[in-house]
């Protein structure tokens, strides 16, 4: 789900803006399979962007070089406005060290396949992976000076959320740490001159980030490293559909922001549009957040809420949402549904979004409304990916919504 610019309303301001059939067992069994860890075996080539700094320093030492060379290499990869992708860009490293890197290390994990320009200035980058798979990354400039890169964490997605185009693909593979980090590196290389500094990262592209939690945690740590890409932890946001054990781990191990895709106020609706709810229901999900965030000082979670006409956008839904998030330090993002081929949903009209928003802020909640960006190039929320011939099944619509 590509990130979009935000309009903010607070409590003090009212400005006017399938069936219960079980999902595929593969969806949930896949959640229990951790991705393979990156390995740096002696004598093999290593992917430099797959290592955090301690790992890089240890590897440099193992090759017979001083730790100072590791820091100079790190800054060539991520700092000093270099963002090196070839050995000629490793300025300042001594000759022997550069020779060793040429023989034993790779600097680049992705290849640009295409860049699509949306009419509103949004860019969608198509990257080819070594195995021929394609992922999509979105760069979203904003007139306020904030530019966001929306990164992918998987090829496809196992969650089968019914409103998401990526979900039609099913899960093809996890992305490595290097493949995730390099999306942010490429964004800076390609667009810093045009848009200025890339200030924000959102893990809202293809995939469920916490399903690939090991690589996402490492990649986000590299992004916020003070000697590296230097993103503020508050400006790196990891989204999830609601994987409860992984949420606990993320909140315990990372200072980056968390966004939870809620999208419904009853288990009946959420079971339909987000099958993961059948494993981790609303009570368990919100109870876990309430407990874990209590232990984090001055931390707020973002709740993402895609507005689906006639499904989750009623006045009663708004009132239930107020009750559901009570006691959880949070901000609410209301997102207009972006149609795509095969979709069975329609976007909520703007006036109804405003009515829904006003009910929330009258109860003291902080609410953002997301404007669609890049939808003419299928770069907006829920539009990334290319399902191909094989697609996960649509779930049967509950009877009360069969209109």
From TrEMBL:
GO biological process entries: rRNA base methylation; tRNA methylation
Where in the numbering of this chain does the Radical SAM core domain appear? 143-370
Question: GO MF annotations for this entry?
Answer: 4 iron, 4 sulfur cluster binding; metal ion binding; RNA methyltransferase activity
A Pfam family in this protein? Radical_SAM
Keyword list, A-Z: 4Fe-4S, Cytoplasm, Iron, Iron-sulfur, Metal-binding, Methyltransferase, rRNA processing, S-adenosyl-L-methionine, Transferase
User: Does the record carry Transferase as a key word?
Assistant: yes
Q: What cofactor is this protein dependent on?
A: [4Fe-4S] cluster
Q: Just give the chief location class.
A: cytoplasm
The record, for CDD domains, names: Radical_SAM
Q: Enumerate the NCBIfam families for this protein.
A: rRNA_mod_RlmN (TIGR00048)
Q: What is this protein called?
A: Radical SAM core domain-containing protein
- Phylogenetic placement of the source organism: Eukaryota, Viridiplantae, Streptophyta, Embryophyta, Tracheophyta
